[in-house]
Write a structure and sequence with these properties.
Mean pLDDT: 93
Number of domains: 2
Distance between the termini: 24 Å
Low-confidence stretches: none
Number of helices: 10
Structural class: mainly alpha
Largest sheet: 3 strands, antiparallel
Strand order of the largest sheet: 3-4-5
Number of strands: 9
């Protein structure tokens, strides 16, 4: 038979257990608006002892206070955040390039090329006209300047993306270090006290979310220590058992931009294994998307230089000169009007090769040939014109910008939906917590009543023996 004092112990343990539950409920209610907070749940267990009479209940105890989380949803959110981060960076880059290519009524390479051909048409109509030749020179300088400026602007976008890459690497290392420190704190707290470090785990999950937006990764938790191991796409560990891996950058000798490397292998690029996150978007935009635009612009400029120069060097200037290139340079970065031409517009070769001096004033043979280049199939393997080729480039930039924006919106929606699902599992419901609070309050009051009743019983017993 159990003693009368057993009731006091049962009441005491019940008071302590319900007080813990009330405190946890208060913690949930106070953090209802705290980002990243996962509601906590108290787990109760009845206690008993074995006696000669069998198993006898001895009350209740709190076995644990756990976060209410769904790790599968968390993993899906991290995966979605990686894709969102990639498209976010890509959208940023393509928006910049699309703005560069945006044409207006009077500006842009397409408009300037049209004016360039029209200026040659004016010269062909009046081969000896000084004003027409001067206008052609001015328009040619405007066109080449425009092409160079677009090329420089695209290069600046690459430089901006390169800066984002180096910044992201620093941010990734900072986040990894913070996650590593939380690993240590969680392991120490849970092994020393035997209780779950819920708030520290919430902080770590938030940092993993931030890290997922930067780079593709996988994470796994050691159930024995509570430590999380973070592995990047190349299979190397960024966060794990100390010492932790650390990313760095090196300048690529070919491109002049930064590649991502491990500090333990500073000459081995891991760009190819970075398939998601902001880093992927910035690297792809810098090395593929924008670089592709520049290649196309270079192709346009090089073909324009070659086509016009081929005809111009064969023609004859108003002063009888021949063999002069109209353009100098070889690409979009250095295309310009030949200084020989800009110094003397009479050297513009509008007349036919070997034209006699007495017909130079009225010969427009070569000028007409250059005008005809406007509609000639000179680009893309002799399948399209200069204007159509450039229009295709502008269209590609616009399409890339729209696709990036669309994918970013789609991934943002996916992340939001998953976070809402996560909130339905881990979020705090004030209505539910108030119900729990009333329940625990009643249980606490009942336990207090039990203690009071047992106390009165003991007083009765004591009075009987006095």
């Amino acid at each position: 038979m159990t003693s009368i004092t057993a009731g006091l112990y049962i009441g005491r343990d019940a008071l302590m257990a319900q007080q813990t539950a009330i405190n946890v409920t208060g913690q949930n209610i106070s953090n209802v608006n705290t980002p990243g907070y996962s509601r906590q749940r108290v787990n109760f267990e009845n206690t008993s002892v074995q006696t000669s009479e069998g198993s006898v209940g001895t009350g209740v105890r709190v076995t644990s206070v756990n976060r209410v989380v769904d790790q599968f949803i968390n993993a899906d959110i991290n995966t979605a955040l990686q894709q969102k981060g990639a498209w976010e960076a890509m959208q940023q880059a393509t928006d910049q390039t699309n703005n560069i290519f945006t044409e207006t009524a009077t500006q842009g390479i397409s408009q300037q090329m049209s004016k360039f051909w029209n200026a040659w048409q004016d010269v062909s109509n009046n081969p000896s006209g000084y004003s027409e030749r001067s206008a052609l020179l001015t328009q040619s300088q405007t066109l080449t300047s425009n092409i160079q400026n677009v090329y420089k602007s695209l290069t600046q976008v690459q430089t901006d993306m390169d800066g984002h890459v180096t910044d992201a690497v620093n941010q990734i290392n900072t986040l990894a270090s913070q996650i590593g420190k939380l690993n240590d704190q969680i392991a120490l707290s849970e092994t020393s006290s035997g209780t779950s470090a819920n708030d520290l785990r919430d902080q770590r999950d938030a940092l993993l979310n931030q890290l997922s937006q930067k780079i593709n990764l996988t994470s796994s938790e050691d159930p024995a220590t509570g430590r999380v191991t973070v592995t990047l796409g190349d299979g190397h560990v960024l966060v794990g058992t100390s010492p932790y891996g650390k990313l760095s950058t090196m300048v690529n000798a070919s491109s002049g931009y930064h590649d991502v490397v491990w500090d333990t292998a500073p000459t081995t690029s891991i760009n190819g294994s970075i398939t998601a996150g902001n880093l992927n978007g910035w690297i792809t935009a810098r090395d593929t998307t924008v670089a592709g635009y520049k290649t196309q612009l270079n192709t346009l400029a090089a073909q324009l230089i070659q086509s016009v120069n081929t005809l111009h060097t064969a023609g004859t200037g108003l002063d009888g000169s021949t063999g002069n290139n109209f353009f100098s340079g070889a690409s979009a970065s250095d295309i310009q009007v030949n200084p020989t031409i800009s110094g003397n517009v009479n050297k513009i070769a509008a007349a036919a090769p070997g034209a006699a001096p007495n017909v130079l004033n009225g010969d427009n043979t070569q000028a007409v040939a250059i005008v005809n280049l406007q509609n000639s199939l000179t680009m893309s393997g002799n399948t399209t014109t200069f204007g159509a080729y450039y229009s295709s480039l502008v269209s590609s930039a616009g399409t890339d910008s729209k696709n990036a924006a669309s994918n970013f919106t789609q991934q943002t929606t996916a992340v939001t939906q998953m976070q809402n699902l996560q909130a339905s599992v881990s979020g705090v419901s004030t209505d539910e917590e108030m119900v729990n609070l009333i329940q625990y309050q009643h249980a606490y009051s009942a336990a207090a009543k039990l203690v009071d009743t047992v106390t009165q019983m003991m007083d009765t017993v004591l009075n009987m023996v006095r």
